[in-house]
Amino acid sequence: MKDLKESLNKFFGFPDFIGLQEEAIKSLLNKRDTFVIMPTGGGKSICYQLPALISEGTALVVSPLIALMKNQVDHVRGVSDDDRVAHVLNSSLTKTETNKVKEDLINGFTKLLYVAPESLAKIETINFFKKINISFLAVDEAHCISEWGHDFRPAFRLIKNLRPLFPQTPIMALTATATPKVLKDISTSLGLIQPKIFRTSFERKNIYYDVLHAEDKMATLKRLLINSPNESVIIYCRSRSKTEHIAKELQSWGLKAGFYHGGVEARQKKQI
């Protein structure tokens, strides 16, 4: 096993690991199913990015959001001399782009391949995975596989189809939050075999939470936004139509605003 601290410093510029990162990485490199529960911003991504960069083959990373995948790919490319080191394979790509990604994978240039869970429903995609050397499977935002998780995505259940195809390939599940019930459901749904669990506190000292009681939500929102002229704000809504309605309302106040949801076409998503 390569010196992990040396590799960490080489690729990411960090002198040392934080929390349980090193132990989780060693578990994965020892071909053991591994479950990582760390807070957002707590360094989960390095737990699979670093072993992917130093292992033979390509790590397959299942991720729920196109924007999240792009962010991760940009980050990995930023620590490498070759952009082919990381790719996404999802519906946002043109046919030409998809063919280029597959060519890089076949030629062994790519260490991390990010895919959406929905892509696992395509026989063509599954058959292609059989042609490449997969070092391990990482399931990011793994709570999405659980019906008791806060962001259930039925397509995540398709991941279980990969285990019989790659029985010797270890799986790493990662999430920022999982109750014992959700943790058990994730392990069962992924077919994890005696996974080693690494859990740290979800509390983040650098985040401030505040809850306001608002009789008039829009009036309260307007006050908060106008008092924060130089900050970027994300507003979560319960429906697609609500995101569009609120974006138009904000625009009528003279604020720059856009909406983003599953019905927005790929080009517009990139622009937003």
Q: Separation of termini?
A: 42 Å
Shape: globular
The count of DSSP E runs of length 2 or more, i.e. the number of strands, is: 7
Strand order of the largest sheet: 3-4-2-5-6-1-7
Q: How helix-rich are the residues, as a percent range?
A: 25-40%
**What is the tally of helical segments?**
10
Radius of gyration: 20 Å
Quote the beta fraction. 5-15%
What does this structure look like?
This protein has 272 residues and is an alpha/beta fold. The protein has helices spanning 4-12, 21-29, 46-54, 66-78, 95-106, 123-129, 180-190, 217-226, 240-252, 266-271; strands at residues 34-37, 58-62, 86-89, 112-115, 134-139, 171-175, 196-199. The chain has a 7-stranded parallel β-sheet with strand order 3-4-2-5-6-1-7, sandwiched between helices. Strand 3 (86-89), helix 5 (95-106) and strand 4 (112-115) form a beta-alpha-beta unit. Helix 2 (21-29) crosses helix 3. The termini are far apart. The mean pLDDT is 91.
Secondary structure layout:
Blueprint: H1 4-12, H2 21-29, E1 34-37, H3 46-54, E2 58-62, H4 66-78, E3 86-89, H5 95-106, E4 112-115, H6 123-129, E5 134-139, E6 171-175, H7 180-190, E7 196-199, H8 217-226, H9 240-252, H10 266-271
Parallel strand pairs: 1-6, 1-7, 2-4, 2-5, 3-4, 5-6
